[in-house]
Specification:
single chain, 495 residues, 22 helices, binds heme C
Length: 495
Amino acid sequence: MNKFKLLFIASIIAIGCMTALVGSINEKKKEQELINSVPKVDKFETKNEEFRKHYPRQFDSWKKTGKQDDIHDMLKDYPELVVLWAGYSFAKDYNAPRGHLYAIEDNRNTLRTGGPVDGKTGPMPTACWTCKSPDVVRMMDKEGDMDYYTGKWAKYGSDIINPIGCVDCHNTETMELEVKRKFLGKALDEEGSLKMKDATHQDMRTLVCAQCHVEYYFDKIPNPKGGKAGVVTLPWSKGQSVEDMEEYYDEREFKDWTHKISKTPMLKAQHPGYEMWKTGAHGKNGVSCADCHMPYKQEGGIKYTDHKIGNPLDNMEQSCMNCHRVSEESLISNLALKKKRKDELHEKAMKQLASAHLEAGKAWELGANKEEMAPILKDIRHSQWRWDYAVASHASFFHAPEETLRVLGTSLEKAGNARIKLAKVLAKYGASDYVAPALTSKKVAQEITGLPFEKLVKEKKKFQKGLLIEWKKEAEKKGIYNPESTKDIEDKTSY
Ligand code: HEC
Ligand code: HEC
Ligand code: HEC
Ligand code: HEC
């Protein structure tokens, strides 16, 4: 009797467990089907939270990029940067990159974009929004390229409002990966080693990132309707190496700005991450950006792509250990050594360049002429371009260690050449004992270069309390912005 009772109870428990298991399998199956089926979302749905109901895991992991919220003031770490960029906006404010969720906040808060008082004021052109938001994709389509690229940055304050999201990388009707910025396809076709139409699925797992993590400049083209467009253009038609692009810019006599102290026609490298990655061990072996930065994740029976794009070392099990058999510790110490080697040359090049600019400033002051200075300025231009190319392509010390050190080596050589020539010019004008002032802090460097820091901060704060609030209200009225989506985002700045 007892035996039967026990058996009965055991059977009931077993059936209960089975039902629960089948239920949970069915639930997971349903979710997996939902992931595989493609609910239609509007082509230009830029409010990222609208995707949550269809793709909760992708959305929730994407949203976690908001946890990467540290502001790291690079000008404070390296006051030399203020001198290297004298006369250019980066000398005002420059932080290390952080999570994608902050792209819009940081663009609006940086002192570089100034304190516009209406849609027609402020220092920056519209092109400065281009790698920050899915709204850019919508606005480029609506306005057409020429009009999108014409006007001031503030023109789109209430139109470009959501941070980097689903529409930037996906065709929302099929959820296939898609390159949404035409300039990338055009540049790939011109360069020729990988034509856009030949891109495989594996290539796309890199190319969606290359829409933004590349070198570019604003090509000034007259708009037939009036004004000048600053069109985002990738300088790849001669190739993608640092020398190829340098030649491209030299041929056009292009300059991003004239250096305030040395009067050099300067180039600012953006972030040639894709070009650098191509030269490294992983790029050469077809390991894509997404392989490390967006590994697959298994949750119960569900396999999905982790959209928390950040530092892959936070998750080495998924990001590295599928391919590597050595221990995590040995990979980490290998990386630390690579970084140390890069930092050594990076800091040496930066110091040489800062001295070169200040010595050139002294030479001009003492009456040096254009003929004497021309070869010096050419060395400075090329040296700084190469230094910047190597360090602005973030984490290049890991993505492409040999190329990074090679490029920094040539930067040092050219800065050294400039300073040998400068020593002769300074001696000729009786200043052979000139020693450039020490750059002991960001504040000191900004004073030496005459940068009105307090004024810039005041203008920015006025903008944040005025026009910016209007932008958000207008965007909400247009139905393109949900204030709830930025509720947890704190305004962090370096000032
Ligand atoms: C920076 C580019 C990028 C952004 C932004 C992005 N994705 Fe993805 N997404 C990818 C990549 C890469 C994959 C992997 C595709 C593959 O290899 O098939 C992917 C895969 C997916 C898939 C296919 C299923 C899976 O998990 O692999 C879905 C669904 C998806 N993403 C939804 C979203 C949603 C929703 C958003 C916005 C909250 C978003 N993605 C934002 C790059 C992006
Ligand atoms: C629409 C342009 C755009 C696309 C597409 C894009 N990025 Fe970014 N990425 C940015 C910007 C802008 C930042 C800096 C954001 C900030 O600091 O506010 C950034 C920052 C990053 C960071 C630094 C994150 C941190 O926490 O420090 C990583 C890593 C990164 N991106 C990798 C990728 C990868 C990998 C892809 C492709 C899967 C990709 N990005 C696609 C524009 C883009
Ligand atoms: C083999 C793995 C791997 C591949 C492939 C890879 N990355 Fe990274 N990436 C890393 C690691 C690891 C770091 C962090 C290094 C560190 O700072 O310690 C990183 C850092 C970054 C950063 C942030 C640097 C910073 O300063 O915060 C960006 C941006 C980035 N990668 C973009 C890309 C892009 C774009 C691609 C493709 C063109 C790519 N990565 C390909 C592993 C990879
Ligand atoms: C999809 C496979 C794959 C993934 C994922 C991957 N690697 Fe690699 N890794 C490779 C291949 C292939 C090579 C080249 C091996 C060779 O040349 O013998 C390589 C080479 C390396 C090297 C030596 C090359 C050099 O540049 O010094 C290091 C270090 C390394 N990987 C670290 C990492 C780290 C850290 C991660 C995770 C963030 C990672 N890898 C993720 C496949 C991968």
